[in-house]
Write a structure and sequence with these properties.
Elements lengths: L4 H4 L2 H29 L3 H14 L3 H13 L3 H15 L3 H13 L3 H14 L3 H13 L3 H21 L3 H14 L4 H13 L3 H7 L1
Helix pairs in contact: 2-3, 2-4, 3-4, 4-5, 4-6, 5-6, 6-7, 7-8, 8-9, 9-10, 9-11, 10-11, 11-12
Length: about 210
């Protein structure tokens, strides 16, 4: 005989548990609504919804929404506040580092922005960080570094596509990567693997 929930717990505890679960589902609906408002370009309403969620309990997606809104309105201080809070609570992650770098660049701190973007590339294969770096160096008329990071962005995108079994996109991205930088070993390897899975044996051998 197995005790049911009603037999195992006092009715008050069960009621508290159900109320807590109801609140969580309510927050999920609020979060979905806030994201829709953000996509619909209704920033004031989205901001209000995200803050309402965070007033009830910590939610990294709500914090990330506030970062996006702050960057969209060029509010570097607000973006930095939430990016730092998110990483303090949930750990360092590439997206928050990228957002942090963007906010730092808004403040004119180029060295700190570059450090944040480079740090993002070290902890995750992310195209976004390399694209930020490529854009920065392009603006500085440093075509060599800009092209290097463009190549790394294509490489990162190609590897993601390969892992998602989107082999055509993987081949397209990885071919662009090696055209820009023929010395990218990972790009050549995943290009060869993508071609092999597509039964393009001759091109695969060439890439290997």
């Amino acid at each position: 005989y197995t005790l049911g929930l009603r037999d195992a717990l006092p009715i008050e505890t069960i009621a508290d548990f159900l109320m807590e679960e109801a609140d969580k589902y309510g927050l999920l609906r609020k979060l979905a609504a806030a994201k829709l408002l953000l996509r619909s370009k209704r920033p004031a309403e989205a901001d209000s919804q995200f803050r309402e969620i965070l007033a009830i309990e910590w939610n990294p997606q709500a914090a990330d929404g506030l970062i996006t809104l702050a960057l969209n309105r060029n509010d570097a201080n607000e973006a930095l506040k939430w990016a730092d809070e998110l990483m303090k609570r949930d750990g360092i992650n590439a997206k928050s580092l990228i957002d942090r770098g963007t906010a730092l660049l808004m403040q004119g701190d180029e060295a700190a922005a570059l450090e944040s973007w480079h740090r993002a590339t070290r902890i995750s294969h992310t195209a976004d960080a390399h694209l930020r770096l490529a854009g920065f160096y392009s603006g500085k008329k440093n075509s060599q570094k800009s092209q290097q990071h463009q190549a790394l962005a294509y490489q990162a995108g190609g590897i993601v596509a390969f892992r998602q079994a989107d082999l055509k996109q993987a081949i397209t991205s990885l071919e662009q990567a090696v055209q820009l930088d023929p010395h990218l070993e990972y790009a050549w390897f995943f290009l060869a693997e993508s071609r092999r899975f597509q039964n393009e044996n001759k091109p695969a051998e060439t890439a290997y």
